[in-house]
Fold:
Amino acid sequence: MTETVIPLDSPPAGVPPLTDTPQALERAVELLAQGHGPVAADSERASGFRYHVRAELVQLFRRGSGLVLIDARALPDLSSLGAALSGVEWVLHAASQDLPYLRECGLEPSSVFDTELASRLLGEPRVGLAAVVARTLGLGLAKEHSAQDWSRRPLPVSWLNYAALDVAVLLDVRDVLEQELIEAGKLGIAQAEAAATLAAAPPKPRADPWRRTSGGHLLKTQRQLAVLRSLWLARDRLAAKRDVFAGRVLPDAAVVAAAAALPRSAKELAQIPPFDGRRQIKLLPYWWSAVAAALALPAGALPAMRGPSRESIPAVRQWRRRHPAAAERLAQVKAGLAELSESEQIPVENLMQPDLVRSVVFEAPADPAETMAALGARSWQIEAVAPLVAQAIRDHPEN
Structure:
């Protein structure tokens, strides 16, 4: 890391006016098409404020073009910009976080350089954007506006300044990291991982998302879980209708408290904070109807205490007792991965996805490399990890 970190308070060329009309977008498309080299990109969302999370602001920087800040709330279709930048490399920090929202706007990069991923592959312990910028460029980025409500309009100038800084330096960071990857012999790995990020399918919807309610694990009966589920679903419908983050409609703690108490009337529900507050009292009939519906369910319709497993293999905690050979294999592979991670300066989770490791170790196939490839592992991962798994299978075969 550079010894002296110089605070960067604003982009060198200043903050451009916000692009928020079709005419301004046309000019921005022309400007960016005239630039050269990769384009740095970022997006800001209103996570924690809005139910429907989407890009609210899209920031772009390209050499020869400069900075462009686009109001994606006013201009949700940016496909004309995507077409103008076809074939151009996009530089993102933590690409998997931004790509879904950029795609919703019609922006589909054909190739990506991920500065966070590159930093991980280089063995850096701190990979947040501010830390990476400080290490590579010796510049300090303030992150005070990262958790703001970016759906607010008009956007304060200080927020736009913050957003512009995130992309204004990203191409310089990319160039430093690319050279470091070349020197470390890891550029091909970074390119393969970035391509895998681009090709990754969207995550499947979670089964029973209501089970992830904070504090819900403390509930002890199926009836309590039924109330939790019913209140969660009622809250979700209302949050979607209002386009408000669900926790702002009704906190998780209130949902769990009502489920734990199993109130027998609207009056009893109104005695549980925050249902006794002025804001919630108006919605009390709505909340009570959800609770009453759960209380009226027959025993056979109550949710199970445990939700469906997301994995096709048994939980690892069961292996030692029920599948001892698999447990021995996993312990051996984990030890080998830890050594490989240290020697190659690559985090274990990047060497191979943990769920993929568990699947291959448990199945103990005759050809681990073939199975890894079928499960989506990249060739460099297979080359590094398959020998560890094969040896563990030989050392601990199934009885």
